[in-house]
């Protein structure tokens, strides 16, 4: 697949909850192997946008195409097939506390009935734990891991089904700056190794700058500023985009 190719195409997407207008004409593209950072204040609709992308919510109007397919038109089976191509880790989604790292990693494979041998499953788990730099944690429980380690295992678990798109919803929230840096490097490594296209939702401009090929700022339900870090910041015309920058640097 060519890097100019669009893997996600969003056109005039709108979504309200009752009187609350959340998305008010979102236009956005994600290119193959790109890392696109989505910024926006809390409650601006960032998570709603990626929930529409994986068919957990449906838009009121407009278009959300992933790999050329209109998500809202997919029936159960093709939607499930599509979801396997998209790895998503939501803010709230955590590891299962009663399962070891190995069992947590294995769970998506078992649930999706992949016909893999024990040997193949183990090889895949080991490869991914190596990729995230945590091979020694395989038999540990989540309670024995640090916050940063849990995030890394979460990313490894998401990768086990070989997704082509990775959605990271606030991957560095609640982590110290050094651990944030590690997660940022992990996001870059994952792209390099697995050739994924990624959307990273974050409040953290350092994360945005380190990882993103392009930034997109969600304001009043639309993406008004989209471009490279230097295009969007620090010379933003919109005072609110500028204030994001001033607050962080
Ligand atoms: P964020 O940008 O912080 O991720 P969200 O996308 O989670 O924000 O939410 C945007 C707005 O939509 C919030 O005001 C939230 O309360 C509201 N919202 C999100 N999901 C639902 C839902 N399923 N039902 C009603 N309101 C919702
Ligand atoms: Mg959110």
What does it look like?
The protein has 249 residues and is α/β, with parallel strands linked by helices. It is 38% helix and 25% strand. It has nine helices and ten strands. The strands form two sheets. The chain has a six-stranded mixed sheet, with helices on both faces. A four-stranded antiparallel sheet has the order 2-1-4-5, covered by helices on one side. α3 (101-111) runs parallel beside α5 (147-159). It is globular. Magnesium ion is lined by residues 46-47, 91, 169. The site of magnesium ion has 4 residues, from α1.
Percent strand equals: 25-35%
* Element pattern in H and E: EEEHEEHEHHHEHEHEEHH
The ligands found in this model are: adenosine-5'-diphosphate, magnesium ion
Biggest sheet details: 6 strands, mixed
> How many DSSP-defined strands?
10
GO molecular function: ATP binding; ATP hydrolysis activity
Keywords: ATP-binding, Nucleotide-binding, Transport
Pfam family, one: ABC_tran
Protein name: Phospholipid/cholesterol/gamma-HCH transport system ATP-binding protein
């Amino acid at each position: 697949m060519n890097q100019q190719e669009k893997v996600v195409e969003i056109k005039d997407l709108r979504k309200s909850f009752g009187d609350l207008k959340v998305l008010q004409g979102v236009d956005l593209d994600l290119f193959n192997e790109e890392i696109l950072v989505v910024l926006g204040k809390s409650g601006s609709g960032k998570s709603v946008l990626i929930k529409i992308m994986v068919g957990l919510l449906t838009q009121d109007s407009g278009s959300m195409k992933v790999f050329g397919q209109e998500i809202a038109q997919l029936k159960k089976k093709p939607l499930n097939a599509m979801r396997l191509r998209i790895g998503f880790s939501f803010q709230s989604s955590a590891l299962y506390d009663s399962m070891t790292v190995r069992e947590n990693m294995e769970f998506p494979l078992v649930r999706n009935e992949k016909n893999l041998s024990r040997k193949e499953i183990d090889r895949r788990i080991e490869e991914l734990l190596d990729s995230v730099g945590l091979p020694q944690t395989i038999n540990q429980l989540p309670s024995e891991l640090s916050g940063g380690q849990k995030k890394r295992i979460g990313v490894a678990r998401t990768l086990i089904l070989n997704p082509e798109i990775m959605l990271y919803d606030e991957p560095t929230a609640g982590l110290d700056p050094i651990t944030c840096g590690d997660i940022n490097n992990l996001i870059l490594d994952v792209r390099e190794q697995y050739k994924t296209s990624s959307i990273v939702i974050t409040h953290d401009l350092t994360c945005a700058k380190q990882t993103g090929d392009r930034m997109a700022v969600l304001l009043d339900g639309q993406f008004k500023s989209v471009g490279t870090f230097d295009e969007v910041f620090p010379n933003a015309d919109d005072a609110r985009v500028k204030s994001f920058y001033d607050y962080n640097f």
